[in-house]
Each structure stands twice: as C-alpha cells, then as structure tokens.
Write a structure and sequence with these properties.
Blueprint (H helix, E strand, L loop, with lengths): L2 H11 L8 E15 L15 E15 L4 E13 L2 H6 L16 E3 L9 E14 L5 E8 L29 E12 L2 E8 L10 E10 L2 E10 L2 E12 L2 E11 L12 E12 L5 E10 L16 H5 L8 E10 L4 E10 L5 E12 L2 E11 L4 E3 L2 E3 L9 E10 L1
Antiparallel strand pairs: 1-2, 1-21, 2-3, 3-5, 4-5, 5-6, 6-7, 7-8, 8-9, 9-10, 10-11, 11-12, 12-13, 13-14, 14-15, 15-16, 16-17, 17-18, 18-21, 19-20
C-alpha cells in the first residue's frame, strides 16, 4: 500500500467527534449471469459451446460524518467476490484499477496476485474518502469523490473522467476519483465549478483539470466546460429545456489530442448527443426518450474498427463505441406501485447492428429489490480473413447475457 492510499484509508476509517456524529449505511448486491461469449464465425480455433455461469456479490459499506457546521466527511469501501469458469476468466480479465487515482489499495485480496484472470476472486475498493468544507461563499471537496458531467442519457460527450459504457448494469455509484474541487454559487441557479485531479503518483501527464460554468436563462439550463486531461484539451457544453411537456437536451464536446504534450491532429475528435425525453400518463407512469449520437472518433467502415484501439479517444477519453452514427431509444414503465419494467436499444446506423437491454424490477420489501434482465446484442459476427479476424459489425462483437439480481440496503 503506498502513502496516498494509506492516507485515504485513514480518512475513511476516521470518525471524529462532533455534533452530528458518524452514521453508517450500505448495501449488499448479488448478481447471477448466464453469459454467452461472442463467437467468431469460421474461426479456425475450437470454441466451447453453451453459456457460462458467473456470480458477482458486492458489499458496500458507507460512513458519513456531519459536524453540525461547515465540515462533513464521507467514505465508502467495497468487497466484491466474482466466481466463473477458468476458461472465461482468462478470456475476460477483471479490471484491476481505476484512472485518476493518485494511489490505491491492492485490488485483489484473494488471490493477492493474478486476480485478473483467476476463476474465484475477492477484490476490494476504497471508492470514497473525502471531506467537504462549506463556508458561506463556496463548497470545497478534497479526496476521493464522484465526478460526472453531462445531461445526455446514452453517451455523455463531456464526460471523459469516469464514464459508464452503455450496457453497464450497476451504475448506482459513479467510480471515485482523487480530486480537489470547488463550487462557487454565482446566482440563484448558477455556479462556477473547478477541479484538479492530480493523477496516478502525482504525474502531470496522468492528471486532469476542469472549469465549468452553469446558468439558467429563462427556461433553458446551459453548461459550458473546458478541461485538460492527460495532455489533451476539451471544450464543450450541454443545453436542456422544457418544451411542450418534453425535456430537450443536447450535449457536445471537441477534443484536441496532445495539446499539452505532443500534438496529434489526426486524433482530434468531436462528439454530440441530442434528443428528447417525455413522461406519458400511461399505466402508473411512463418515461420515454430518444437520442441521436455522433461519434467523431469512430469509423464508418467496420474493417477499421480494430485500428481504433490505439487512438487517443479510446486510450485516454473513455470512448468505446466504434461507429459514427447511432440512434438510441428507451422507456421505463411503472406497471404497479412496486414493479417497474424498462427497455432500451442502441443502434449503430452504419453497420445495422444493435444492443437491446430489457429489464424488470420488483420492490419486494422495504430496501429490498429483485430484478432480472438481459443484454442482447445483434449483428453479423466477425469473420476470419486468413489468420486475422475482421469485424462484420460492432455489436456482433458483444457478449450476450441474462441476469438476475438481489439488492438489499441498510
């Protein structure tokens, strides 16, 4: 454990005396998956048939402290157990760390080494450990904390720090990053927001910084953002307003690759997401949305998909979609007071493949939820051209999965 991680752990475990005193909460989540890995048509290699069972259990412990004045603190620690067959573990290694953290605890408790490809893994994550100081003029946040930008639903072009890919099932908690952040109110519904993320081992080339301004002009919410991350420059913003009962949104960002290091004009890219959301008086309430996404970092040719991995957008900006033009739609329906059904789909307009996400959730008791769903990709699978696999579509490269989950909060 390095010094930075040790300091964050001390902050997480500290419970200073004060007027409010410490409070403890958390949750336990259990997921069971039936995972069918994407096959490669005409592959010269043997591929075992059938789906694989995967289990993931997560215990998250949260602590809060409110001194009754201007200082508060928050911490969260997770234990995650993952079990799966050896062949799947080797083909789908686990993530072993997060970006924009100065230091961290060793991710794997058992086994302590080689956990990324082990069939049975117990991992840990100190995901929150920050202090908030709130005098009258501003709010200052220091430590490991959540940061999220943008108002779009499917893809947030301005969020390059810790974005969630479409199809991530558990998005309740945004991954924590190490940052010093200050938010200054400049009006009733306006603020300036600035932050510094020192990056791994305080290396400037691994860090980031941002300046964001928010304001409301009539019925329109406007946000402008500029950020430097890993030597790249971003400028963007988003706009949202109500019109005729619908919420209209547009979010865009331009990135200039290597602006503060070695300039890479060929890696510059622009992204845009625009769409609308509407609440219908149907059943117990229905929320529906439609969005278009333009991904300037991607390609209109499926044969070019493999070459994108080395580009700045995919290595340093959290971009994961491979095509150019996408259409997404979704709806959430309150079937009863305790049951909610949802479905969404993301379509690559260039190659015709799509990714559908149906789900059903039951609030079985207070603080207890049961849910089930599926990750359903559709599109031509990759073909072999000699010894090389050539993609025929984007979502034809995705795994298919069905899942059931149990969530209990305390």
């Amino acid at each position: 454990m390095n010094k930075a991680a040790a300091l964050l752990l001390c902050l997480a475990l500290a419970s200073p005396a004060g007027a409010g005193g410490p409070a403890f909460h958390g949750y336990f989540k259990s997921y069971l998956y039936s995972l069918d890995p994407a096959g490669v048509r005409n592959s010269p290699l043997p591929r075992p048939g059938g789906a694989y069972g995967v289990t993931e259990d997560k215990l998250r412990l949260k602590s809060y402290w409110d001194g009754g004045g201007t200082v508060k603190a928050e911490a969260a620690y997770e234990l995650v157990y993952t079990g799966r067959k050896t062949v799947l573990a080797r083909a789908r290694p686990l993530a072993s760390g997060y970006a924009y953290r100065v230091g961290d605890l060793g991710p794997f408790l058992s086994p302590s080494s080689g956990g990324r490809t082990a069939p049975s893994v117990l991992a840990q994550d100190l995901d929150r450990a920050f202090v908030t100081w709130s005098p009258a003029a501003f709010d200052l946040y220091a430590g490991r904390q959540p940061l999220a930008f943008g108002s779009a639903i499917t893809v947030n072009p301005t969020d390059v720090l810790a974005p969630y890919p479409y199809g991530t099932i558990d998005t309740e908690e945004r991954r924590g990053v190490d940052a010093l952040r200050v938010r200054v109110p400049t009006g009733e519904l306006a603020e300036l927001d600035a932050g510094w993320l020192p990056g791994r081992r305080w290396a400037a080339s691994e860090g980031a910084g941002f300046l964001r301004g928010k304001a409301t002009l009539g019925d329109t919410d406007l946000t402008l953002l500029t950020a430097a991350f890993r030597g790249n420059l971003l400028a963007g913003g988003d706009i949202a307003r109500h019109l005729g009962g619908a919420m209209l949104r547009a979010e865009a960002a331009q990135v200039w690759a290597g602006s503060f290091q070695r300039r890479l004009p060929a890696d510059d890219f622009f992204r845009l997401t625009a769409g609308a959301e509407y609440n219908f008086n149907l059943l117990g309430g229905t929320d529906a949305w439609l969005e278009y996404h333009f991904n300037g970092a991607g390609s209109s040719r499926t044969s070019a998909y493999p070459s994108l991995a080395g580009r700045t957008a995919y290595r340093e900006a959290g971009v994961y979609l491979l095509g150019r033009d996408y259409l997404s739609a979704g709806a959430s329906v309150q079937l009863s007071a305790l049951v909610t059904a949802a479905a969404s789909v993301l379509v690559n307009l260039g190659d015709g493949s799509f990714y559908a996400l149906p789900s059903l959730e039951w609030n079985a008791a207070e603080n207890l939820y049961l849910s089930a769903g599926a990750l359903l990709p559709s599109g031509p699978r990759a073909r072999f051209n000699g010894a090389a696999a050539v993609p025929a579509s984007e979502f034809g490269l995705y795994d298919q999965a069905f899942y059931a989950s149990f969530r209990a909060y305390f």
